[in-house]
Specification:
It is a single chain. With 152 residues, this protein is mainly alpha-helical. Helix content is 64%, strand content 0%. The chain has 6 helices and no strands. The longest helix is centred in the last third of the chain and has 29 residues, at 102-130. It is elongated and about 60 Å long. The N and C termini lie far apart (70 Å). 27% of the residues are buried.
Length: 152
């Protein structure tokens, strides 16, 4: 008989990239039994999420810096750095003791969902609404912003 997991954390955001979903769900499934293992998996989710945000997925620290240079809000940078540091400390002993405070590992799920909401869901919603503007208004905006295609 399969025993349902105790999932003390939220489900993944509906817009979490497909490449991240299995790892997120596995981390969620084991979070109550092994917060360290869950944190390590969430570190992998962050790496894949950064890849989905257009970065190479090789060096998380540098790639967060690249996203900041491209205009990413400080709150999102802090959420990503929080996940990076906690995830790293889960497998490399440091100043964070996940064994003593499993809630630290649980917070990674909230942070990942926050990043997805800000970097994926909100832009998608805005783009969907923007596309509904009348064609004339869209062309006027393009002209204003210097994006009008040159006509030869």
């Amino acid at each position: 008989m399969i025993v349902p997991s105790e999932a003390p954390v939220q489900s993944h955001h509906e817009d979490l990239p497909a490449s991240c979903v299995d790892d997120y769900n596995e981390a969620r499934d084991i979070a109550a039994r092994s917060p360290k293992a869950a944190a390590a998996l969430m570190r992998l989710v962050i790496q894949k999420l950064i890849l989905a945000l257009g970065q190479p997925g090789k060096n998380i620290n540098d790639e967060i810096g690249n996203l900041v240079k491209a205009g990413m809000p400080v709150e999102v940078q802090q959420a990503l750095d929080y996940c990076r540091v906690v995830g790293n400390n889960a497998v490399h002993p440091g100043e964070i003791s996940i064994d003593d405070e499993p809630s630290i590992a649980y917070s990674l799920f909230e942070m990942v969902n926050f990043v997805v909401e800000d970097r994926i869901t909100k832009p998608k919603k805005i783009a969907e609404l923007y596309k509904k503007l009348p064609e004339g208004a869209l062309k006027a905006v393009e002209k204003r912003d210097g994006k009008e295609e040159s006509r030869a």
